[in-house]
């Protein structure tokens, strides 16, 4: 900063070594320019607001997309509530990597900041992010493991986790969370109050020009602004389009320039009055009158912010320098929506770290089905997809009696299991896809794979053949209506069918119960 002031003062008073009359003429021209420059700077720093009233603007129709939510930042009590709610909502997922287990939180780097402010700009992964200390792991087989280790980001991963020395599937995690959050001050600026005085210095609303807002404040305050709400005339908050900013001299530096300006004008007057006969006299006058340069000072910042509409006033949200620190012990459960590696019968996909292949372990962490598969994927409680070595991906049925994964010749039409153990499957025959129903628990065929379409409703399977005729099966694979009907509609207590009458254009309608016994209408 001293260098900056020193160079500026030299520019203000420097005169080239030239013949006497000419150098004094050049000094006069140079001083006139510098007087104008400093006067412009000091005029800009004047705290009086320059306003182009937004309320008087014509053609100021805005769209809904020009505004944003006005909830802004929260006060300390609300922040604490949001933190507690958020910490209670965190779940975990696991990846079994035999003989270990990698436990990972459903937590991303900026989640915490977004929960306690609109922008979350003040939360950075290296400074103010919560620390998650994994204290204990509760396993599915009712055993526990004490860990006491900080959960960290692994390379290329955006979530925090820990690898533990156990291949057993986890049920819950005991975690100590250490966190911090800011105290937020809200200040409002407008036509009436265009200046706010804070312990760190003044914030001045210098200009509102339609959708542009210019502010002047200490640089240290600008760095602690976490959000700006620009208020439209109807009270809604405008979206921000962008901003530009510059560093300005500090207050001490401005006082220095005010004194310099006095000397400039005095020197200029003496030059015009021919009081300096040569450069030596001029240099002596300058040396005698130049004030001492200010020591280290806090610079100012001026920023112009652009919004999607005309601004009436603004709200600034500024965090205090010191944060509040907190600590909580939480018990985290597994994410119910990301448990595709386990099934109801206690089989869990695990990757062997030696061979890199997948198999299934039990709740004790031991292999139930050896890791012989490339990229094993869970489909439902009875089916997995995987490949042996470099072969084509193959659907496998889990045989619970033999404890084996066996390849099957069919594909699953959907993953949903009906009536506890039934699943609609299909296979290809030439260019046609044939549908049937499989008992997923035993692997046996319940409805033969020969149909063009199968649909389940109220526990009954409607089938359609390739002649576009429909029939009906029950959950045990017993056919209760043959494929002779044009349509079958199943209601909660009856079945209504229609079929064409030979030689007639109209249809015959019949009603049956769920056992296929015809009823009177």
State the low-pLDDT regions, or none: 1-20, 54-58, 120-125
- Work out the radius of gyration: 39 Å
Could you give the distance between the termini? 98 Å
Number of strands: 35
Q: How many distinct helices?
A: 7
Strand order of the largest sheet: 2-14-13-17-9-5-6
Estimated helix fraction = 10-25%
- In one word, what is the shape? elongated
Task: Report the structural category.
Answer: alpha+beta
Mean pLDDT, as a whole number?
84
* Major beta-sheet overview: 7 strands, antiparallel
Strand content: 35-45%
Task: Summarize the structure in words.
This protein has 521 residues and is α+β, with helices and mostly antiparallel strands. Helix content is 18%, strand content 45%. It contains 7 helices and 35 strands. A hairpin with a 6-residue loop joins strand 21 and strand 22 (394-399). The chain starts with a helix and ends with a strand.
């Amino acid at each position: 900063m001293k260098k900056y002031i020193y160079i500026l003062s030299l520019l203000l008073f420097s005169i080239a070594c030239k013949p006497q009359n000419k150098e004094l003429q050049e000094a006069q021209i140079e001083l006139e320019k510098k007087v104008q420059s400093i006067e412009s700077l000091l005029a800009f720093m004047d705290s009086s607001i320059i306003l182009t009233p937004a309320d008087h603007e014509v053609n100021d129709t805005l769209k809904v997309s020009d505004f944003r939510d006005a909830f802004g930042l929260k006060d300390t009590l609300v922040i604490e509530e949001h933190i507690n709610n958020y910490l209670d909502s965190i779940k975990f997922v696991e990846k079994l990597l035999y003989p270990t287990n990698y436990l990972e939180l459903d937590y991303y780097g900026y989640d915490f900041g977004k929960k306690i402010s609109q922008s979350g700009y003040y939360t950075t992964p290296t400074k103010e992010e919560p620390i998650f200390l994994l204290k204990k792991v509760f396993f599915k087989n009712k055993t526990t493991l004490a860990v006491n280790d900080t959960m960290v980001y692994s390379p290329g991963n955006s979530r925090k986790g820990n690898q533990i020395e156990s291949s057993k599937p986890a049920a819950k995690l005991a975690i100590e969370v250490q966190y911090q959050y800011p105290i937020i001050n809200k200040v409002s600026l407008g036509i009436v109050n265009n200046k706010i005085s804070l312990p760190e210095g003044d914030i001045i609303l210098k200009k509102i020009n339609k959708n542009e807002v210019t502010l002047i404040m200490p640089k240290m305050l600008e760095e602690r602004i976490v959000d700006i709400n620009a208020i439209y005339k109807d009270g809604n908050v405008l979206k921000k389009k962008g901003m530009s900013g510059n560093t300005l001299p500090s207050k001490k530096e401005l006082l220095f320039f005010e004194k310099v300006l006095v000397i400039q004008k005095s020197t200029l007057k003496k030059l015009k009055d021919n009081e300096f006969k040569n450069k030596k006299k001029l240099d002596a006058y300058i040396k005698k009158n130049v004030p001492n340069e200010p020591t280290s000072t806090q610079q100012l910042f001026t920023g112009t912010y652009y919004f999607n509409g005309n601004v009436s006033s603004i709200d600034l949200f500024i965090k205090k320098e010191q944060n509040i620190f907190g600590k909580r012990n939480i018990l985290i459960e597994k994410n119910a929506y990301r448990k595709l590696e386990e099934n109801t019968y206690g089989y869990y996909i695990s990757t062997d770290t030696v061979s890199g292949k997948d198999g299934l372990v039990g709740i004790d962490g031991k292999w139930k089905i050896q890791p012989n598969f490339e990229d094993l994927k869970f489909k439902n409680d009875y089916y997995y997809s995987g490949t042996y070595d470099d072969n084509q991906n193959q659907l496998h049925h889990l045989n619970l009696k033999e404890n084996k994964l066996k390849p099957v010749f069919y594909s699953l039409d959907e993953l949903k299991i009906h009536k506890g153990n039934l699943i609609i499957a299909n296979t290809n025959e030439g260019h046609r896809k044939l549908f049937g129903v499989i008992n997923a628990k035993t692997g046996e065929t319940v409805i033969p794979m020969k149909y063009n379409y199968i649909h389940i409703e109220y526990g009954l399977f409607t089938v359609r053949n390739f002649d576009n005729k429909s029939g009906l099966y029950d959950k045990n694979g017993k056919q209760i209506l043959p494929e002779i009907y044009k349509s079958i509609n199943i209601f909660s207590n009856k079945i209504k069918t229609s079929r064409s009458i030979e030689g007639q254009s109209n249809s015959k309608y019949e009603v049956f119960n769920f056992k296929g016994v015809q009823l009177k209408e």
